[in-house]
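Data availability (excerpt). The following record was deposited with the supplementary files.
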Amino acid sequence: MPAKPKWERLADHLRAQIESGELAPGDKLPSTAELCEQHSISAITVRQAIFKLRTEGLIEGVQGVGVFVAER
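Predicted structure:
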C-alpha cells in the first residue's frame, strides 16, 4: 500500500490534534511558514492540508489574521 501524500499526513496530524482537544475551538493554527519548518514540507503542501480541513469544517480562515479551529 503506497504511503499517504505529505499534505494528507499533515491534515491527519492536525485533525487528530483538533479531535483530541489539543487544539481547541478558537485556537490559532501555526502559520504556513511555521508548519513548513516544523514538518519539512512546502507551502503548497501546507495549503493543500489546510484546504482539506476547511472543506471538512474543522478550521476557518480570517483574512489577514490566520487560521483557527472552528467552533463545533
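Summary of structural features: The longest helix spans residues 6-20.
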